[in-house]
Design goal:
This protein is of the alpha+beta class. The chain is about 15% helix and about 40% strand.
């Protein structure tokens, strides 16, 4: 479990193909000092398992499922990545609940530079639009952000200078691919009301449904 508060920017130093997967070695002194084999770590929002490590770097193995749903297959030596270590149960929840299970890849459509922030507009597959609401939470490359505006299959986030300085979002440009994880709570609410049963049911909340659940409306 993660919170979307990035602890460090790491740098990919090794990319080694292994069957249908890839071994990624990341140099990150702070993270590597804490990580041990079998520990979890978030790379640009994708939860991975450490399979080897040293005092200054660690290695994970991204398999076919991960490569098909994230941008990890695009990593090359020199790629900078957002890193977050798993949440401790006694930590403050600084962002929102993030599992590190990427839902899809989005594309940066526009970056608007403001005096004290940047507005980044991102498009994504329309099938996920029901999970995006204004002022809701979303993880972009593992970063916990708040949706500023939402329309069709696009949303915009307002990024403060502190976040730009601590993450890779400062490098975002039109066409940049980003990993997206939508709000966990919204998914569970939808599932509990039968919204995605076999991928065919309507996940919307209607007055009829509310009355059937006992609400007096």
């Amino acid at each position: 479990m993660f919170t979307g508060i990035i602890g460090e920017i790491g740098r990919v130093t090794g990319v080694q193909r292994s069957g249908g997967g890839v071994h990624l070695t990341v140099e990150a002194r702070a993270a590597a000092a804490e990580l041990r084999v079998n520990d979890s770590v978030s790379l640009n929002g994708a939860c991975q398992t450490v399979i080897a490590g040293s005092p200054t770097a660690f290695t994970v193995q991204a398999v076919e499922e991960t490569l098909g749903k994230t941008t990890l297959g695009e990593f090359v030596p020199g790629t900078e990545v957002n890193l977050e270590l798993p949440l401790r149960l006694n930590d403050r929840l600084g962002g929102h609940l993030v599992l590190g299970h990427v839902d899809c890849v989005g594309t940066v459509e526009n970056v608007e530079v403001k005096e004290s922030s940047r507005i980044i507009r991102i498009s994504y597959p329309a099938a996920f639009a029901r999970y995006v609401i204004p002022v809701g939470s979303i993880a972009v490359d593992g970063i916990s952000l708040t949706v500023a505006t939402a329309a069709a299959n696009e949303f915009a986030v307002s990024v403060i200078p502190h976040t730009l300085g601590k993450t890779t979002l400062s490098r975002a440009r039109k066409g940049t691919s980003v990993n997206l994880e939508f709000d966990l709570i919204g998914k569970y609410v939808e599932s509990l009301q039968g919204g995605e049963k076999k991928g065919t049911a309507d996940g919307s909340i209607t007055p009829e449904k509310l009355r059937s659940w006992g609400y007096n409306i």
